[in-house]
Fold these 2 entries.
Entry 1:
Amino acid sequence: MFKRRQFIQTASLGSAAGLLGLSGCATPGAGHGPKVVVVGGGYGGATAAKYVRMWSGGQIQVTLVEPNATFVSCPISNLVIGGSKTMADITTPYDNLEKRHGVKVVRDSVTRIDAEKKVVMLAGGGTLAYDRLIVSPGIDLMNDTLPGMAKPGAADKILHAWKAGPQTVALRKQLESMPDGGVYALTIPLAPYRCPPGPYERACQVAHYFSKAKPKSKVLILDENDDVTSKGPLFKKAWADRYKGIIEYRPKHKVVDVDAATNTLKFEFNDDLKANVLNVLPMMRAGTIAVQTGLATANQRWCEVDFLTFESKAAKNIHVLGDAIQVAPLMPKSGHMANQHGKTCAAAVVALLTGQEVNPMPIYNNTCYSFVSDEDVVHVASVHRYDADKKTMLTVAGSGGVSTAASELEGRYAMAWARNIWADTLA
């Protein structure tokens, strides 16, 4: 029964326009019909903007508000830090959203949302009215939990590089400038955080670089969690087999402060530690605009949503996607998952704005690849289905799984996955 239902769900998403009685290609510049504004052009927001246009047959106006000129992918960005990829390899323009799909792209930031009047205010002074608002703000780093980060120059020296962009390049330069025999220290916050396996992949990338260019150097992982949060046995095998003597893993290390002047980490219970390069990942929360709007109702960090539509539980006509939400059980905060959120939300928004029934049983999947070297990769995959009784997404028993071992073949799969999801989101 599941396989049949899963097929029906997949088919319904793929042919949403036909099922809603809408057809034809999106018409660029269409000025009539309901208005949808999308805040944030990441995996969730850009996907939602594209698919609302596609699945409405161009009958719904869509405006995407995004301050950056291009899309820069967090997945694969650790390879830029490791030196095997460049920023150009992970960068895609937004042009096709406008040219092919008729999405109006506004390069600006949203400063305020008036949920009652259904209007967003832009930093540039303009306003945008909406019938439905999709907020996909990603995460913000809670630097205020580390007092030392507020000191002049600290944020320029102690990097997170957890949003792919200038800090990605800056961290790579720090590693290149570090003397052989130095120590790179990476801190990991208590879960949940964006991309559970991401820090451990980064440690592998830095260790791979050290093994080739700085063989006397060390990678020190300081994890607030009790153990590796994703693909633990596979990462530990890579550390033991490939990077013995280079990577050291220390769990239960909660960072409470930093001293940029002396490159020192301070912990709740453990002794202070100095390193040549500090890569600190603070606690994370939903992007600022979601918090300011009152959408972050879960510990003032994450946004609770109805998983049938991704409508906020705090505000009508506002949908929240991606890393910003309070996730369902075993649901990761990942680029692939944000893409799935975007499609599910797009189908729901089209249905709501055209008087159609919302799909009562959404199903979506997640695959996450991690590079343990510049070529060898491991993965974890899962399938999630809506449970009407519990009103949340639950993993499907027997679905998904993890790699048996790292391989170069999976490395080829990983790059194909990246190219395909970039195209699905932006082409």
Entry 2:
Amino acid sequence: MKTIKSILIAATLISASAVSTMSAQQAAAQSTEPTFNVEPGDTVMINRECERYLTGERMSLWVYDVEHIVKQLGTKRFPEGVMLDNGNGGILSWVCQECIGPVAPKAEQPAEQPVEKPAETPAETPAETPAETPAETPVEEPAQEVEQPVEQPVEESIQEQTKKDYNRFTIGVRGGAASLLHSVVKGDWICGGDALLDLQYAHYWTKENRPVDLGIIVGVAVGYSQSGMKAVVDTTYTVNTTDGAIDYTLKADEVKENDSQIQLEVPLMFSLIHDNGLFFNIGPKFMIPVYTPYKQNIKNPDINAYFPAEGVNVSNEVVTGLVQNNQLNTKGTDNGAQFKINIMLTAEIGYEWKFQNGNSLGLGAFANYSVFNSFKNEGINKSLMNVTPPSSTGVANVDILSATSTYAEKLGYFDAGIKLAYHFNFYKK
């Protein structure tokens, strides 16, 4: 009997030792699990000292000033991470616990009080054996069942939504200096200005580890531009009449032309937008002048007619040619009749500010330069003051033509200035 009692006592001691060892191992395993100061459903805000998500991407400025909801705690990839969601899909990303602070935590005080004390006091002292077995089975098993379905869809959605392709509709206004760049032998172009309205559509492709979004922009713009040119009139030519030849010398101190146009533009640009807000757009642009009025002023015109047969000079006479007072200032709408299309190279650079609603405001500089235009001046050999010589039926007649149609050898286009644009961004789901 004594032997049997000894065996039973030894078995009891071995069992107790094994149980103690298992308790220690369980406690050690539990101590390695991460602890969180927040729970799913808590409302938090991101500290401004935190600049990047756990995925490595830089945070936008707007995320610091809004409330976020704790969606999930920990995953295989980020065991100590906290996934946030602001409720409208604007953010769905992992951050570290140190990056967040509570705004209105859900029962944070009562949660710590009842959990810590009952776990320490009643669990350790009264019953190590009965507590260990039921605790291991019901707690660990459901945890594994929950982790798998939650972790899988969440991680996939983060990879898809952190960097998403998006479409953009833009309304913008721009303006600055502009000129038709008249090429004149005895004169020069005059710089003016323009103002335009832009309507654009763009699509951007994004990539998870790429800080730059790539896009293509198309659209239409309509606006008004004004510039001009000035030249000196100094033309000589000979005409033959029934009474003999007449040598004409036509002069004016200055002819100044003011050119206006309503223009239509169609851009096709490649676009780059950096995560920090900088953007750069470049590409071709087609410009069509729809309406091209002009105004012109002539200073001190002089028409001299010389009759070589008689050796006589006649200057500013009605019979041989005289510019009337009402011809000193002229205007018309056919100045750019042959200016059908202009192909330009355009470039834009600036900065964008993103709003909480996902839209953005852009401010930048732009420049357009003509690389081709269809202007052809077939009247380059004409005189600004075109004189029909006198005849037996009447006196001479003087027509005043535009400076562009007579003196401009080439035309181009250039404008540069400031652009302000509001972007409506539509992200793919």
